[in-house]
Amino acid sequence: MKQIYTYGNYLTNKFGCKVHKVGINISGFTCPNIDGTVAKGGCTFCENDSFSASTGEAQELKGFHLNMDSKENPYLDKQLQQLEFQFNALSKRQANEYGVDKFLVYFQSFTNTYAPFETLKALYDKALSFDNVVGLSIGTRSDSISEEALDYLCELNKTKEIWIEFGIQSVYDETLERINRGHDSANVKEWILKSKEKGLNVCGHLIFGLPGETKEMMIETSKQAYEWGIDSVKYHPLYVVKRTALANDFVKGIFTPINEEDYLDILLDSIQMKPENVSVQRVTAGINDSSLLGPDWCKDKNIQIKNINKALKPLGLKY
Description:
- The longest helix has 23 residues, at about 75-100.
- The relative contact order is 0.13.
- This protein is about 40% helix and about 20% strand.
- The chain is an alpha/beta fold.
- Helix 2 (about 75-100) runs parallel beside helix 3 (about 115-130) and helix 7 (about 215-225) runs parallel beside helix 9 (about 260-275).
């Protein structure tokens, strides 16, 4: 049985020890399709408040949001404190529970290049100053990064492990418009290619089960993402949570989530066409609380992984 090449395999091979990502959520960050720059309300599947619960948000930061044109950031010191607090707590837990030796600081929630360069530089530099941190992973959108920020990440990449994560979701513009994404597929391709040309490591996020998409469309998204040269991939099924535009369509019967059988079918095809050098960071997603409206199979990640491995077995693969 051959194990799929995972991101964990990649990091262990490179650093010779157990390396984990530490997910960080910084208050004051948002998205251009939430703040009205390119759209309002965010992506139809995004519950905008869901990111704030784990930030330890200071009361004075509530309602404060940055963008790339912000002239000042009076709360930078608070954000730096927040970063340090979260990293210390989470890295200590990972070290104690999983024997993790080194860490990547993962700027995870919202769009983590959507702020003035001075703020980004301060946060990235602070994160890299922590003990046993070997690099960064920056979650962002392709319409929300400047050449200056990209060049700085490339400079950091000369001595540290720097990744940039782009939400590709779909290569079909009609789908991106339907989910209120706020940019087109050409924009994603442009910035992935720019990132690769500058030597950065790129992870692409793909969502299967987006409204109106066929299996052929989802497979084509995988195919093009690989052709753009991504180094790692995250596969997500689209699930529906409360307080989203998608939830309204679900309740009205306008949208039906992807079933597990179809998801597994598309996932396996996508994995089989994946270049050997592309690592896999995620094969599914879900949430096990009352906010999930559907599909029910996205409730239990352990059962999802078990079923994925069952489907992979006849192919001689395991995750």
